[in-house]
Amino acid sequence: MAKDAVADGSGTAGEPASRQPKRQREEGRKTSAIFVAVLIGAAAVFAAYMMSHSEDARGRGRYAAAMPALRTVAAQLLHPEKGILAADESPKTFGARLAGHPNKPSLRQTWRHILLTMPGLEAHISGVILHEETFAQAADLAAARAAGVLLGIKLDNGTAPMGPKQAGELHTRGLEGLASRCAPFHTQHGAAFAKWRAVFRVGPHTPSKAAIRRNAKDLASYAAAAQKCGLVPIIEPEVLADGDHDLSRATNASVRVLRGVFRALKKRGDVDVGAVLLKAAMVTPGSSSAVAATPEQVANATLRVLLGTVPRALPGVVFLSGGQSEELATTHLEALGRLAAERRAAGKPLPWALSFSFGRALQASAMKQWLAGDVPAAQQALLGRAAANALAQQGRAPQDPAAAAAAAAAAAAAAAAVP
Ligand SMILES: *[C@@H]1O[C@H](CO)[C@@H](O)[C@H](O)[C@H]1NC(C)=O
Ligand SMILES: *[C@@H]1O[C@H](CO)[C@@H](O)[C@H](O)[C@H]1NC(C)=O
Ligand SMILES: *[C@@H]1O[C@H](CO)[C@@H](O)[C@H](O)[C@H]1NC(C)=O
Question: Which ligand has the minimum distance to the alpha carbon of residue 336?
Fold first, then answer.
């Protein structure tokens, strides 16, 4: 009994046998105190590790030191009232937009001439992404540059099948010789930035780990090569909207893809993520999904994905339109802009700028007008879309399209009047 009482610390004082157990007891206490201290220390180290490795910092490696000249270009592209025009369609894709008109190089050149020499383009367009064919037809590049519009070069060579184990999945070609291929676009043609697109299909078993790993690694290799060539890389890991998947499956795929991409960028160690732009798909249900999502749900899901995956050091996310109509792309962008503005007002601003890099959602109406022979109407249509999206990205309702077009036309007339 007494022994038990001593052992559990309630022993009677003065008992001779109690001295020895008392020392043991104190040593025991000392030992457990040290043990607890070690535990607390370990927990603190673990917590610090988790904090520094949570979300964006997840994974091994580090980003390269700041590249100030490239960061300046990235900031120019992310002007709060401007976005990026993606006019880098491959000849084949361009042909698909021509509604039966013959797809000749001269026709593509004519359209790109209209874009690059459009009076007032610089009001709401910070940069234009071009296909290398347009750089080869170089005549109009200087005009755009002189107007203050930055030029971008699409550096990827399109997609190819992954392999038999990843049926239906694609990887992007063009890494071979990229380091030497990209330099002249900057040194000879004055390009300031570049683009590389990878695509991911959402299906029952896709995107697969293998497809994410391969494309993420290649996007990171491209980003490093572009920065070495003096170009700000836009990385475009596009999660495609094709399919009948719902919003939660789109969310899952987007998180896994973006995590993989930033992990790969960090693993390399030679990319300044502060001089990279992410061109991302908005997170939407598949285009043939039975369940629609409101613009608010799309914006919420998109921001949740980005906040969980994109490092704070990245300067900006520019959204692709991915087959959305002009109006829908603008409506989604406006919902995103509103959420960003609400967070700013609540003292929790997003770490990166949000903007647009639309292709079809800027050009569709304009091309229709052009193909019908009305170039002034084509210019007005494009400037109107750009103006509407510039407002939308700030969370401001685009004026009705007619008013926006009129404002843009006035800006164009003013610009044209300047000798
Ligand atoms: C594809 O890559 C080759 C070199 O590998 C290059 O010469 C060619 O211009 C590229 N084409 C496109 C459309 O990017
Ligand atoms: C995506 O879904 C799979 C299958 O349901 C799940 O195991 C995985 O944890 C999910 N990943 C994310 C990032 O949500
Ligand atoms: C999305 O909506 C949920 C629930 O309404 C909210 O708690 C969350 O903060 C929203 N996320 C963002 C990024 O706005």
Answer: 3
Which ligand neighbours the alpha carbon of 179 most closely?
A: 1
Q: Give the three-state DSSP class for 171.
A: strand
pTM: 0.84
Sorted by where each begins, the domain ranges of the chain are 2-47, 63-417
Which residues are near ligand 1 (CB < 6 Å)? 132, 157, 174, 176-177
Q: Which of 3.30.420.40, 1.10.3720.10, 3.20.20.70, 3.30.559.30 is the CATH number of 63-417?
A: 3.20.20.70
Question: How much distance in Å is there from the Cα of 200 to the middle of ligand 3?
Answer: 26
Measuring CA to CA, which residue among 398, 408, 405, 402 is closest to residue 334? 398
**What are 255's strand-pairing partners?**
none
Give backbone dihedrals phi and psi of 174, rounded to 5 degrees, phi first.
Answer: 125, 0
Peptide bond into 349 cis (omega under 30): no
Contact in structure between 68 and 315 (CB atoms under 8 Å): no
Which ligand 1 atom sits closest to the C-alpha of 177? 5
Query: Which residue shows structure tokens 């369940």?
Result: 291
Cα–Cα distance measured from residue 83 to residue 96, given in angstroms and rounded to the nearest whole number: 24
Distance CA 142, CA 99 (A): 30
For CA atoms 200, 202, 203, 209, the dihedral sign is positive
Closest C-alpha to ligand 1, atom 8: 157
Mean pLDDT by 10 residues, the chain (419 residues): 35 40 57 60 52 50 93 98 98 95 95 96 98 89 94 98 94 97 96 98 97 98 98 98 97 98 97 98 97 97 98 98 96 98 97 98 98 97 97 85 64 58
What pLDDT does residue 53 have? 41
Ligand 3 centroid to Cα of residue 361, in Å, is: 27
Residue 128's identity, in one-letter code, is: V
Q: Is the distance from the beta carbon of residue 304 to the nearest atom of ligand 2 less than 6 Å?
A: no
CB-ligand 3 contact for 339 (6 Å cutoff): yes
What local confidence, expressed as pLDDT, does residue 194 receive?
A: 98
Q: What is the pLDDT of residue 50?
A: 45
Distance from Cα 377 to the centre of ligand 3, integer Å? 41
Catalytic residues: 236, 279
Nearest to 91 by CA among 68, 79, 109, 77: 109
